Amino acid sequence: MPGTDLKITPQLSIPESELVERFVRASGAGGQNINKVSTAVELRFDIAQSPSLPEALRARLLGKRDRRLTDQGVIVIDAQRFRTQDRNRQDARERLIAFIATGLSVPKSRIATKPTRASKTRRLEGKRARGDVKRGRSGRHSWD
């Protein structure tokens, strides 16, 4: 995989030079293997400074409230699900592709609407009926 671009769509790809990978020891259970081998991958990609992303996509990605995004606009993905370094590396890249792909679709702008006259009437009728039920519970009735 080294030396190849990360392909998001046929039109959009990220050069290998923009990705920063660091291999660290994974946390959690795993016995001797986990204590000896640095299999976990920390993948960093600077969204804010990337020349390969279109401006609109960059703005949508930076606007997301994702805990993996730093204040400087760098996404940090930790992958330690698998036992081998290569598989964790592949997993981290797949997760980065998925994150960027979520920003590709432009959300539809919401058109504000007003309630119809019929829905207002139904709402008021429901309130009136509920009020009648509560009024009927008061102690004014004689049950003799």
TrEMBL record:
Residues 110-144 are annotated as: Disordered. Its EC number is 3.1.1.29. One of its GO terms (biological process) is rescue of stalled ribosome. Keywords: Hydrolase. The keyword Hydrolase applies. Signal peptide: none annotated. It holds the Pfam family RF-1. InterPro entries: Pep_chain_release_fac_I. The keyword Protease does not apply. Residues 25-41 form the Prokaryotic-type class I peptide chain release factors domain. GO terms for molecular function: peptidyl-tRNA hydrolase activity; ribosome binding; translation release factor activity. Gene3D superfamilies: 3.30.160.20. Residues 122-144 have a biased composition (Basic and acidic residues). This is Peptidyl-tRNA hydrolase ArfB. The gene is arfB.
